[in-house]
Design a protein that fits this description.
The structure holds two protein chains of two kinds. By secondary structure, chain A is of the alpha/beta class. In chain A, the strands form five sheets. In chain A, strands 3-2-4-5-7-6 form a six-stranded parallel beta sheet, sandwiched between helices. In chain A, strands 11-10-9-12-13-14 form a six-stranded parallel beta sheet, sandwiched between helices. In chain A, a hairpin with an 8-residue loop joins strand 21 and strand 22. In chain A, helix 1 packs parallel to helix 7 and helix 12 runs antiparallel to helix 16. The longest helix of chain A has 13 residues. Chain A starts with a strand and ends in a 5-residue tail after the last strand. The longest helix of chain B is centred in the middle third of the chain and has 13 residues. In chain B, strands 5, 6, 7, 8 and 9 form a five-stranded antiparallel beta sheet that branches. Classes of the chains: A alpha/beta, B alpha+beta.
Chain lengths: 565, 163
């Protein structure tokens, strides 16, 4: 017989978890004691529970594995909520183990008690409160199973302290059967045949792919399919890297800050093949405007509720993206012939491309777009790029060409500022020795800046690219364009000296103010300071805005382009 | 459109709040909700009366199916079914109203299940519309309390919702 705390650790070992991100406290002391007595599961001590969850989330995003966080009851749990909601919105498999007050104290307003299951319910795929030590192992097994299968997502397991002290025999179930949870994997063959037929008839086709391609590790299959079809491909923000950005068929990201060619191609396509994407508001703009064009939609998604939610779908295919694409490829073997009119469509797309919607004007200041282009060059396009949320996120998405999946790590759905730095930590735990750039701004970075201390403790050599314009840039951009330049609370004064701050934490700091210094600084950071965390404070043109832009409520083709201003 | 959704759900603590939370989070409305364990005590059956367009109903069904504890979901109202609701209504029964209340209960095939010097409790079962008509037929000033269970229903014949 072993204790509940030891059972928790044994379960993690059985799941081949090599590290957990966490923060100790009263309710998890038994678990931390069990953690101390073994070496297989490493622990990364963060400085705030929010960062533990973000790091576990990025560990998962940058690998295929389930990230794990461990926190104490009460404030430990409430601090994780932003991180859990972030992972939930982007369907990231994750298990969050939370301490809880002893069973007999639940409901008594005990010290550091909160209703964990109630608070997290709306932002988890599922959650559990363990009430009997005999259920502990099977509950943790279920948690990992639910997190990683079907449409993935975070699962919370709430474990009262007394349960971690009680003794029980340990047996980890090899597999799990749940009558209420049996996600579909294979797509319906009849539907897939219909889809292939529709693709064959398409005159103005587009492949629109999202995060589902990355989550299901289907990038190779998508690329194979796209090459076979010779159709244009666009990616959502979450889908970047799911199709190689340097490929001729790639027309760029679509949506609010998508390219001119991607948005036009999406809008005027007669057949859309949607793969693991969900037609969200940042992607299609105004749904009425989007609905004005007659088109047929094929939608592959593992989650039936994503299909026909915002856009009516003609051929729904529920299934795992990789499996469905596999079937499609088999069906098309040899016999597929695209419509000859697709050649005219390509001519049209090339004309749209001719607008060069991502061109920008240089100024005497550093342009943020320029920093991204140089970052791409210096890292050989092979870095893991984590980002926060705002203008810098869009610049990174537009100008860093991701050729591989799982390299672009950002909060797409929830749009959580502050994720970038802890995301870098998670990436490095899953991919030791990788080049990691955290693209951020002076607003976002300060939301989790305390993690510079964690980075020192564990030697995470993240390169922080701070695009500093002294403004909450995206807020300022909207105020400039839609609020007659009334810059309400978007100007940040009293910024810290980031160079000194980095140094105070024991890292390397650099301040870069001239365009000609951008590349040398990046090179120095990635070579000379390869093993150091380098905080690069780029003082950028405060007037730089993100274009193209589809304003809120506007149609996808009603873009504002940089050249028009 | 009025729809009756029947749900088989794991009989576990918090299962009801998962369903109720889903409806409030996504802005769907619940007109009534009833829940109790089935002949298999590990399963509960929930009946929800809701209103919405076909698109909304499609989403409600899909979102319910996504809940891990939900075993099966069916929209009863899309095929032949029977539905019932139970009401207990306490009315003032004094003087000439005493005789009138008894008569009304008989007309609607209700039963008087509690009698005091001043009040009756009438039990009435039927389609929700019948219960509405009964309330409408009474003098509003004489109604002391109304308790309704909400709709429960079952598909006809071979339409069976079971694991």
């Amino acid at each position: 017989m072993i204790s509940g705390a030891e059972i928790v650790i044994r379960c993690l070992q059985e799941e081949k978890v090599d590290c957990v991100f966490g923060y100790p406290g009263g309710s998890v002391l038994h678990i931390y004691d069990a953690l101390f007595k073994q070496e297989q599961v490493k622990h990364i001590l963060v400085r705030h529970e929010q960062a533990a969850v973000h790091a576990a989330d990025a560990y998962s995003r940058s690998s295929q594995k389930v990230g794990v966080a461990l926190v104490t009851s009460g404030p430990g749990v409430t601090n994780t909520v932003t991180g859990i909601a972030t992972a939930y919105m982007d369907s990231i498999p994750m298990v969050v183990l939370c301490g809880q007050v002893p069973t007999q104290y639940i409901g008594q307003d005990a010290f550091q008690e909160c209703d964990t299951v109630g608070i997290t319910r709306p932002c988890v795929k599922h959650n559990f409160l363990v009430k009997d030590v005999k259920d502990l192992a099977v509950t943790i097994k279920k948690a990992f199973h639910i997190a990683a299968t079907g449409r993935p997502g975070p699962v919370v397991v709430d474990i009262p302290k007394d349960i971690t002290a009680q003794l029980c025999d340990f047996e980890y179930p090899k597999s799990i059967q749940m009558r209420s949870y049996n996600p579909v994997v294979k797509g319906h063959l009849g539907q897939i045949k219909k889809a292939v037929q529709m693709l064959q008839e398409a005159k103005r086709p587009i492949i629109y792919s999202g995060g589902g391609v990355i989550l299901s590790d289907a990038s190779d299959k998508l690329t194979q399919l796209a090459h076979k079809l010779d159709f244009p491909v666009t990616n959502t923000l979450m889908g970047l890297g799911g199709y190689p950005a340097t490929d001729r068929q790639f027309v760029g990201m679509l949506g609010m800050h998508g390219t001119f060619e991607a948005n036009n191609a999406m809008h005027y396509a007669d057949v859309i093949l949607a793969v693991g994407a969900r037609f969200d508001d940042r992607v299609i703009g105004n749904p009425e405007h989007f609905g004005e064009e007659k088109r047929r939609v094929i939608h592959i998604d593992i989650d039936p509720s994503s299909i026909s939610k915002r856009v009516k779908v003609d051929v729904p295919i529920v299934g795992n993206v990789a499996d469905v694409l596999d079937e499609m490829l088999k069906l098309m073997d040899g016999s597929f012939k695209a419509d000859p009119e697709v050649a005219d469509w390509w001519k049209q797309i090339d004309e749209w491309r001719g607008r060069k919607s991502l061109a920008y004007r240089q100024s005497e200041h550093i342009m943020p777009q320029f920093v991204m282009e140089k970052l791409y060059e210096v890292t050989g396009g092979d870095a893991f790029v984590t980002s926060d949320v705002g203008q810098h996120q869009m610049f990174a998405a537009q100008y860093y060409k991701f050729d591989k999946p799982r390299r672009w790590i950002n909060s797409g759905g929830l749009g959580t500022m502050g994720v970038g730095l802890p995301y870098g930590m998670g990436v490095l735990m899953a991919n030791p020795g990788a080049q990691v750039a955290c693209v951020t701004g002076e607003g976002s970075i300060q939301m989790c800046i305390q993690e510079m201390s964690t980075c020192k403790q564990y030697g995470f050599p993240i390169k922080i690219i701070n695009l500093n314009n002294g403004m909450l840039g995206m807020v300022r951009q909207w105020q400039e364009m839609f609020y007659s330049k009334r810059y309400s609370q978007s100007y940040v004064t009293s910024l810290p000296d980031f160079v000194k701050l980095a140094e105070a934490y024991g890292h390397v700091g650099m301040k870069i103010e001239k365009p000609e210094d951008v590349e040398p600084a990046l090179r120095k950071a990635f070579t000379e300071h390869k093993d150091d965390l380098v905080f690069m404070d780029f003082i950028i043109d405060p007037a730089a805005n993100v274009f193209p832009m589809v304003a809120a409520g506007k149609g996808l083709t009603e873009m504002i382009l940089a050249e028009e201003l | 459109m009025r729809h009756i959704i029947s749900i088989l759900i794991e009989n576990e603590a918090g299962a009801l709040s998962r369903v109720a939370g889903l409806f409030s989070a996504r802005g769907y409305n619940i007109e009534s909700l009833t829940v109790a364990p089935t002949e298999d005590p590990s399963l509960s059956r929930m009946t929800i009366l809701t209103r919405g367009s076909d698109d909304v109903l499609e989403q409600i069904t899909k979102q319910l199916n996504k809940l891990i504890d939900v075993v099966k979901v069916v929209d009863l109202s899309e095929a032949p079914h029977v539905e019932r609701e139970l009401m207990l209504i306490k009315v003032r029964a004094t003087g000439k109203d005493r005789e009138e209340m008894k008569r009304m209960a008989d007309i609607f095939r209700g039963r008087i299940i509690d009698v005091t010097e001043t009040a009756y409790v009438i039990e009435l079962t039927g389609a929700s519309s019948k219960l509405d008509s009964f309330i409408a037929a009474l003098d509003a000033g004489l109604i002391l309390e109304t308790v309704r269970t909400g709709v429960c229903g079952v598909g006809r014949g071979d339409r069976i919702l079971k694991v």
